[in-house]
Every structure is written in structure tokens, then in C-alpha cells.
Amino acid sequence: MKPFRFERPENAEGAVATLTASGAEHARYLGGGTNLVDLMRLGVETPDLLVDVARLGHDAVRETDGGGLRVGAAVRNSDLARDPLLRTRYPMVSQALLSGASPQLRNLATIGGNLLQRTRCAYFTDTSLDCNKRDPGSGCGALDGEHRNHAILGHSAACIATHPSDLAVALTAVGAEVLVEGAAGERHIPMPGLHRLPGDAPERDTVLDPGDLIVAIQLPPLEAARRSSYRKVRDRASFSFAVVSVAAALQCDEDGTIRDVRIALGGVAHAPWRAERAEEELRGGPATAERFAAAAAAELDQARPLEQNAFKVPLARNLIVTVLADLAGVAA
Questions:
Q1: How far are the Cα atoms of 175, 293, 320, 322 from residue 317, in angstroms, in the given order?
Q2: How many angstroms separate the CA atoms of 119 and 165, rounded?
Q3: Domains in the chain, start-ordered, CATH in brackets?
Q4: C-alpha closest to that of 247 among 192, 185, 182, 180
């Protein structure tokens, strides 16, 4: 690991000013460090400056007007997962947090850092292999190599890696907003919208500008989220990224008509994937397994699987149907 400077500002404004004024070619914010420090050890990240943002006071969960939640970016994953308001109003968010990493890492990782962990695969973390994300223009080794757990939606010839955050998938389904402090002041970024698809610039995971700092996440009041679930299919029972995951929320009228539905997929794209086609197919119709299957098929018509990961298409379809059927109380 190469030497670096370390700064600990007193507030968000100071953190933004420190990083943007540093002139450092590679400067990074440091929260829990569970992703960044690993990448530094591997030589993938080589920052000249680390700015500690874990102690700036953004470490509380509070209720907002109307019944939403504002979550500070420095709140630890484990603390948010067991927050009683979150567990009652947004079960899928709590379940997504508990699906990630290990208890030890969840005790250290921050909410803001979780959203900003790098979209990556083994070709990114091995500096001896070609990776456009790590070294733009070098090529994507996964295209002709091992790509069983790579993207089937929204990928490009430049990158086929998938975003690893379980939390980001649930927040995308909820329609959360990310509050960012930058050189020009505070702004709100909707989810989906924070994370980018790769296009021809896969080295950029998000729409954030240099120096932008996530200070909070705002979850809107959402009645449908009270009946919600996060389901994750993975190769190991714990400490494993999703092969495919589904975050879904469902609200039905007394006659079984779907009033509101929210669906997001993980493990299938460079960014958390909001299943807007499936949602549109379902709203206003009956909550039946047949409708769920048709909506899932409409969403996955966009899929472009590769040779080794075509199995993800039926897996995602079946997982969507199963999760929605469970929420609706009907047979899948």
C-alpha cells in the first residue's frame, strides 16, 4: 500500500473543501472503509489523500414529515437494519441490509459507503488482468473469460460487471433520494439515478462529481413498502454477492387489484435495476401468478445474456413471481 495523507475535517463543508482543494490526483472519502481499504491493499485504489467522513455527525435515523425516514450517511448498516421504524415501514430495506456481507462488516460499514462500493468483478480486483473500469481502454477480460455472475441487462462492450450492494437494490425499489453536499451546495439525487450503466465510461460508477459527499438518504412515505420483501439467490449461504436478487413492495385493494407495486433487481446489471416495465404491466390489474409471470417476462425481454449466464433470465423471472406471489398471498 502506497503512502497517503489523512485528514479529519469537522463538518461536511470542511470535508468537501478539503478534498476539492487538495489538488490530489487520487483523493477519496473514508467511511467504514470495508471496500476502499480492501482495494487499497490490492493496489486497485491508490489514493494520495483520505478524508475521514465517519465522524461528521451524520449518524442518526429520524422520522420526516409524512412518515418517511432520513438516514444519515454515517449510520452503520447493522444499526439501520435493526431500527424499529425501518423494520416496520420498509421491511425489504432491513432484509437487504442483513443479506449483505457478515455481521462484523455490517457493524463497521456505513450507509453512504455501502452505496458507493465499487461495481466490480474478479477482473477489476486483479491488477494483472484487463479491465476497462480499472484501466480505461485496456479491454474487458470478462467478455471472453469467466462471466457466469455478470450482467444480463444494460451492459456494454466496455463492462459487464454487476453492482454488489443489496441495500441499493431495496432503496431503488423504494424510490429513495440521496442527499449530496458538493462544491455548489446540497442537491438531491433520486434512486434510480445515482448509479450509472457502463456505456463507454465504466470507470464512473455514479453520477457524483469530484468532491461530492453523500450526507443522508431520504426514504419517502410509502404505504406499499409496509408489505415488502427482499430475496437474494447466491452461491453461498452468507458473505456472497447476489447471483440475482429482488426487492419488491406490493399494495392491493380489497378486491385484489394492484394499487402500487415496486420492483428492483440486483445481480443483473452495472446498477440496481428498477423493473419499470413489469410495474407498469401490473398496476391496476389483478394480483395473480399469471399476471406476475407476464410482467416478469415483459421486463426480461430486454435481457442480453452472455454464454455462461443465460440461466439468470429464468432465475430472475421465477424469483420475481415467487416474491410477488408471497406478498399477495397467492400460489406462485
A1: 22, 7, 5, 9
A2: 9
A3: 227-328 (3.30.390.50)
A4: 192
Work out the percent of the chain whose per-residue pLDDT is above 70.
100
Residue 119, helix vs strand vs coil: coil
**Residue 231, SS3?**
strand
**Which tens digits make up the pLDDT trace of 20-73?**
988 767 899 999 999 999 999 999 999 999 999 999 999 999 999 999 999 999
Cis peptide preceding 272, ω within 30 of 0:
no
Cβ-based neighbour number of residue 302 at 10 Å? 13
Q: What is the mean pLDDT of residues 180-189?
A: 94
> Nearest CA to 168 among 242, 104, 89?
242
What is the Cα–Cα distance from 314 to 316, expressed in whole angstroms?
A: 5
Paired sense of beta strands 5-7 and 49-52, if any: parallel
| Other beta carbons less than 10 A from residue 316's beta carbon | 27
What are the Cα distances from residue 224, in Å, to 167, 189, 245? 18, 22, 19
For strands 5-7 and 244-252, give the pairing: unpaired
Among residues 119, 113, 108, the alpha carbon closest in space to that of 215 is found at: 113
Cα separation, 189 vs 179, in Å, equals 7
pLDDT of res. 22: 85
> Which residue is listed with cell 459487464?
160
Give the Å distances, CA to CA, from 283 to 51, 213, 246, 319. Answer: 45, 36, 18, 19
Show the beta-strand stretches assigned E in the chain. Answer: 5-7, 27-30, 49-52, 61-63, 69-72, 177-182, 185-190, 213-219, 228-233, 244-252, 258-266, 273-274
- Nearest-CA neighbor of 206 among 29, 57, 24? 29
301 by Cβ neighbours in 10 Å (0-12 / 13-18 / 19+) ranks as exposed
Cβ distance 71 to 111 under 8 Å?
Answer: yes
Q: How far is Cα 234 from Cα 305, in angstroms, rounded to an integer?
A: 18
